[in-house]
Amino acid sequence: MGFVDQEAINLYSGRYDKKGLNRLFPNVEKGCINFGYWETIPPIISTSERVESQLNLYMKIFSYSELNERNTKLLEVGCGRGHGVALLNQIGMNAYGIDPVDKQIKTSKSNYPLLKDRYLLGSSSQIPFNDNYFGRIISLEAAQHFPSFELFAKECFRVLSLQGLMTISTFFYRSQAAESKINDFLPANISGVHHAISIDLAKDLLKSAGFFQIQSFSIGEKVFAGYCQWANQLDIDTPHSSKWVNAYREGLIDYYILKGRK
252 is in which domain, residue-wise? Predict the structure, then answer.
């Protein structure tokens, strides 16, 4: 399996914080676990609007991924409960997903039985496919869990075909200096799950792996505020959940779409 974060496995296997996870990410068993993308934020967010925001974040990363050729082989790294892979196949992609959490893969296959052969157990540092296999790779709000972004970048470069495109969507530190200040907003007890790095380091690691035409796009303004309003509205027993927007507004983190071509 390779190097996998055991804390992330515990979280997404439901071994702890299951109630909080299910409230922050409603309809969690159907595949979406992300902050969401919010063009507008209602005064009171309904559950259906929260679910829609999570789907909208998938649509946002798709829009940057140049999905213009049907039947392109595509891999989602960190596929969660499988919804992204299902959406991609619905729009004509030949999509597969890997995840290091066995329960997630079983849930994906249960959710989407017609696609059960598309979900495989695998880690970001040891992708279970041959060289040059995929034309596209996406990873939505998963890279912050990978203990080694460097190994992730190298593996994605290996399995991408020539001219293939990788698109990543998650939060990064705006500078490496932010890492020492982040605990003022987000307590240390979540650092075992999150392995965020700076956006500049992420770009450097992609370049070192062989990628070129590396671009980043800030979308934090449309991500953190809506999610944190939702968390405040729930009044759950994880007070850091509503503080991501504070860290963003203080210039410590941002949410990016990051692209690189082989």
Answer: 6-261
